[in-house]
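User: I'm writing a short report section on ligand binding and want a predicted complex to refer to. Could you take this sequence and zinc ion and write out the structure as tokens? A short remark afterwards would be nice.
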Amino acid sequence: MKRIFLMILISSLVCVFPVGSLICGQTVSGSTCQVRVLFSPQDNCAREIVSQIDKAKNYVYAAVYYFTSRPIAYALIKARDRGVDVKVCLDKEQPTYEYSKSRFLQNQGINIRLIGDSGIMHNKFCVIDDHITITGSYNWTVRADLENDENLLVIESQEIAKTYKEQFNKFWSGTHVDTCVYKDKDRLVKRAVKVGSALSCDEYFDKDKPDEHPDKGKYVGHKNSKKFHYPECRWAKKMNKENQVWFNSQKEAIDKGYVPCKVCNP
Ligand SMILES: [Zn+2]
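Assistant: Sure. The structure tokens for the complex follow:
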């Protein structure tokens, strides 16, 4: 496995994070830091992430868009079982994705919050014990590990970890910036107009359940997954209102490119 070690001075590294409503980014400065650079699929990114989680003593805070990796899920559970504070923020759509580990983690008692109002929670970062930050394009998925072209940085720096931890805490408390608008004609300067929200899985599943549906149709499809269900299906009950597409017949659903759910067999 090819590993590149870089020693960089972080005084010139600019992180583009919103600060309050000022959206000006932060320049993180401090001592030197060490960065390990990995590329997927050739480097063992999942193994690197697991080995970092295995070393955690106090906390692992992760905000990842897509999470299907079994070894990483087990590493988080192992960490929690030895007393490490494990918190995971996922995009709000994760519970409806077929191979997502969101439900598995939830069932294992891992603290999860679902993030997302407008847009998607597209981050892939993890902070460990105030000194390790893992980030890059690499989602915590089997596909990213075996097939995709991705990059992963493992940064050892207290200053960078602090910056990412602050952003994680904003997601966790639902106080992150959700939406901005341009405030100049060149579209280079923005201001925040809306703060986001964070829901536990239970809170999320309880809202907008398609219980009352006779006026809407016999079957309900998910706009993104293109699967359709009986409204009583447990997967249908997890859909957000905005993602529901209703049909009066199977033919109508199939003609519109939807496929029947394998659980409820509509
Ligand atoms: Zn179904």
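A remark for your report: Confidence is low (pLDDT under 50) at residues 1-23. Residues 209-260 form one domain.
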